[in-house]
Predict the 3D structure of the following.
Amino acid sequence: MFNLPFDVWYFIFAFPIFLLWAIAILAFGRISMRHIDREMVKNKGETPEWDKGIGIRLSMYSRIITRKKINKVTLFDEQAVLDHARKIDWYLAWFLHLTSIAFFTLAFITIFFFKDKFQD
């Protein structure tokens, strides 16, 4: 019954991790990042103009929210991010971090230990 090839087992294990990571990126970007950007603009602040489409703000905002403190040298107003972050933003930031760790760990293990399984 459980005598499946390695490729099938890998897909059964890897696809949910990838799917959760994609959901975390979309959820944090659509819910948290959009809320924080709107509040920053509403309070006469400005969003980082250098990040239009790259998505670096996603990881920076989530890092600031999970650490709950700002750096000494900042690229944008990190205090405004902390001021406008809600409790759900904290949960989504942690969800993003944990799924990112799981996805990149799986990718690392695949590249270094199982690459011969996927080559023709």
